[in-house]
Amino acid sequence: RALDRSLAVGAHGLPLMGSGDWNDGMNRVGNQGRGESVWVGWFLYTTLEGFAPFCDERKQKTLGNRYRKHMLRLKKALEDKAWDGDWYRRAYFDDGTPLGSAQNEECRIDSIVQSWGVISGAADEHRAIRAMAAVEEYLIRWGDGLVILFTPPFDKSALDPGYIKGYVPGVRENGGQYTHAAIWTLIAYALLGDGDRAGELFALLNPISHASTRAGLHKYKVEPYVAAGDVYAVWPHTGRGGWTWYTGSAGWMYRAALESILGFKLEGERLRIEPCVPRAWREFEINYRRGATHYHIKVANPLGLNRGVSEVWLDEARLPTDDIPLVADGKTHRIQIVLGERQPAPTGQEIL
Q1: Are 196 and 245 contained in the same domain?
Q2: Which residue of 13, 27, 59, 239 pairs with 77 in a disulfide if CB–CB is 3.0 to 4.6 A?
Q3: pLDDT digits (tens, 9 = 90+) for 217-276
Q4: Which is it for strands 283-290 and 270-273: parallel, antiparallel or unpaired?
């Protein structure tokens, strides 16, 4: 029922935003029932794509096909109405005014619509790359060690997006680093195959990095061993951590490291290792316990690549595909992955 309620669209064919979406501080963008959220468009596309197969399995193919048709309409609307020329817009107000556009004085570019264009897989490939280049140019502040949510922050313009404008510019959701969203930026770069950038962003977002120097620790002022929900991006508090022990950011950071960078992807009784790592990483290891069975995974990167799997070995046998079958025999198994261009396995070595 929740999905069915989410299918309503506004004048641009995009999902209605109501009194806020992921950024609940934007509670007056669509509170009159006409405003639209571009981010919800990407998120809904992803949700429908994952849910439609379950409809088929439950013999509700009519419903599954309805969702797939909505996905097609949604994808067209996102490309036709949400593209701003160099990045995707964030939303439309009730009166049709765009938000997250080059024509705005404040909140000209927002990170989560760019990253979710990539994460959803729905954005045009060339536009997705261009949008993430804009994120790098405007939202990643390497010198300050920040990935800010949007820029410029809300302050004095006539736009009234909601209570977000009550925050000091550059703090929390109002143009500070909101770590939850910053990690989505990292994941997007990994999905684009840029393991070097993904690795750099993970190092930047890792809270322990703030304790690498005495000056950094005094600037950060909060625990460097747990995830911070936000980091300030306004002088004189630039780089100061906000509220900590934020499980939302911690969970996404763990997934970003394990799934997006190390490439550990568990699907039922099968495992895939599809890394996207910095080229300087020549190898890494993962120890995985599944019940009483242990798997020692070693990944070699002899050519210094970002991604691409050439060989997969389970114990002494080379597998014909990247799918690794998992068993519950209580033993210890060895998995070896070699990055490179896929080559056919020699006859007689495959597991069929």
Answers
A1: yes
A2: 13
A3: 999 999 999 999 999 999 999 999 999 999 889 999 999 999 999 999 999 999 999 999
A4: unpaired
